[in-house]
Write a structure and sequence with these properties.
about 260 residues; alpha/beta; eight-stranded parallel sheet; globular; binds nickel (II) ion
């Protein structure tokens, strides 16, 4: 535990994942005793959105996003979306997510991915809620839809170029950075980390995945966020605590409207 840090706002986590089944309760309690101030747990389908809601009801500082990930787009029926709509009314539901396009795995056909993504962008307008965007190797199509709907929200685990980051920023959205900025070959994420204005940066784990160096390949959790903050701080010429402070403030504004 890197206990010297505080104000750690993990804007994207999956603590409902089975990889946390053995020690979830102890881990989460220790996180909140060691500098983590809030966590947004993101759904990827109806079941995980419900599990995220349950976590938010159990832990004061866990909030959640409900939504359908592109991998699961194919499996969704109309009644599932009715249930997602109900989840969005929950007092601790702070975003629609994670939603978007994934052309790396293509687990769902692309036309269905796009339909489900677009439907949820419309939901974001209807409910006036931020979105949490997943974009993997689908930058052009993701951008087309974001440009069309101009939601508030964040492109999480941002993997695009500095040019694409500028597009995202130009419509008022945030950029979420995680463990990938610490990886050895991370030229583009580092360039993005240097270019994003302070008021648009969020920090995240995407745990249990994407553990930052020197923990790469192990199970990730929010206590490792300072490793990511240290790298972002070094390219921006500031301190890791300052990065934690400003990303926490940005996340509160975006998700809690304060
Ligand atoms: Ni995720």
């Amino acid at each position: 535990m890197l206990t010297e840090y505080r104000n750690i706002f993990d804007s994207h986590a999956h603590y409902d994942d089975e990889k946390f089944d053995d020690d979830r309760e102890n881990l989460l309690t220790s996180l909140f005793d060691n500098g983590v101030c809030a966590i947004v747990n993101c759904g990827s389908d109806l079941k995980s959105s419900k599990r995220s809601m349950a976590l938010s009801e159990k832990y004061e500082n866990i909030y959640f996003a409900a939504g359908v990930h592109p991998h699961e787009a194919d499996e969704m029926g109309e009644s599932d979306f009715d249930e997602i709509r109900e989840l969005l009314k929950h007092p601790k539901c702070v975003a629609i997510g994670e939603i978007g396009l994934d052309y790396h795995y293509d687990f769902s056909p692309r036309d269905i991915q796009k339909q489900v993504f677009e439907y949820q962008l419309k939901l974001a307008k209807e409910f006036d809620m931020p979105v949490v965007i997943h974009d993997r190797e689908a930058h052009q199509d993701t951008w087309e839809l974001l440009k069309k709907y101009q939601p508030k929200g964040v492109v999480h685990c941002f993997s695009g170029s500095v040019e694409m980051a500028r597009d995202i920023l130009s419509i008022g959205m945030h950029i979420g950075l995680g463990g990938a900025v610490t990886f050895k070959n991370a030229k583009t994420p580092v360039a993005v980390a240097a270019a994003v204005p302070s008021e648009r940066l969020l920090i995240e784990t995407d745990c249990p995945y994407m553990a930052p160096v020197p923990h790469r390949g192990t199970r990730n959790d929010s206590s490792l966020i300072p490793c990511t903050a240290e790298v972002i701080a070094s390219v921006r010429g500031t301190t890791a605590q300052e990065i934690l402070n400003l990303t926490a403030e940005n996340a509160k504004k975006l998700f809690f409207n304060k």
